[in-house]
Amino acid sequence: MGRQRPGRDARDRADSAAPAPEGRADKTCASCGRRIEWRATWARDWASVKYCSDACRARGVREVDRELEASIRSLLDARAASATICPSEAARAVAAARGLPGDEPWRELMEPARRAARRLVAAGEVEITQGGRVVDPSTAKGPIRVRKVR
């Protein structure tokens, strides 16, 4: 156990932190689709927060990101209602349509494809699964599958 300062206990430390606003809506990052955790520094302008980090603010949502979203939608529309796709399928389709150079240009689009899938989850259009179970897209690690909302 570490030393505690005299006169301060856990209640004092908890009370000194800025409280989260009552009734605040959960937010997802406009770029990566992950859940935005409330921070005390955003207390005054929580309503205007759109991005979870400076990197996401700089990246934004580009044309290729919209193409990946459209590719995910079209791949799912072409399959049975219960079918799933891998984000790599969308990445391969967009890489082929753009004629990207290299041996496997779709690999560069894998993280953008996962971000596109997370944005579609935030929009309520799809679900991300692992092992057949729906998972939280903000915390999912490893291979994922994407399916229409049931």
Question: What is the element layout, followed by pairings?
Answer:
Blueprint: H1 10-16, E1 27-28, E2 35-36, H2 54-59, H3 63-77, E3 84-85, H4 87-98, H5 110-122, E4 126-130, E5 133-134, E6 145-148
Antiparallel strand pairs: 1-2, 3-6, 4-5, 4-6
How would you describe this structure to a colleague?
By secondary structure, this protein is α+β, with helices and mostly antiparallel strands. 35% of the residues lie in helices and 11% in strands. The chain has helices spanning 10-16, 54-59, 63-77, 87-98, 110-122, and strands at 27-28, 35-36, 84-85, 126-130, 133-134, 145-148. Strands 3-6-4-5 form a 4-stranded antiparallel β-sheet. It has a two-stranded antiparallel sheet with strand order 1-2. The protein is globular and about 45 Å long. The N and C termini lie far apart (48 Å). Residues 7-20 have low confidence and may be disordered.
Provide a compact summary of the structure:
This protein is α+β, with helices and mostly antiparallel strands. The protein has helices spanning 10-16, 54-59, 63-77, 87-98, 110-122, and strands at residues 27-28, 35-36, 84-85, 126-130, 133-134, 145-148.
Share of helical residues: 25-40%
**Poorly predicted ranges (pLDDT <50, ≥5 residues)?**
7-20
General shape: globular
For the biggest β-sheet, the strand order reads 3-6-4-5
Broad structural category: alpha+beta
Averaged pLDDT:
84
List descriptors.
globular; four-stranded antiparallel beta sheet; alpha+beta; two-stranded antiparallel ribbon; single chain; 150 residues
